[in-house]
Amino acid sequence: MDAQSTTAAPATDAASYLDLGITLALNSWPALTLAVQSNWGGPTSSDKRDWLCGAISEMLSDRPETDAEDLEDVLIQVMNDEFDVVVDDESAGNVAVQIMEFREQTTQGEFGAIQELWETWQKKSQQKSTATSMFKEVDARDEDQETDGEEDDSEGEDVEMGEAPALVRAPREKAEPEVDEDGFTMVKKKR
Question: Looking at the whole model, is its pTM more than 0.85?
Answer without folding.
Answer: no
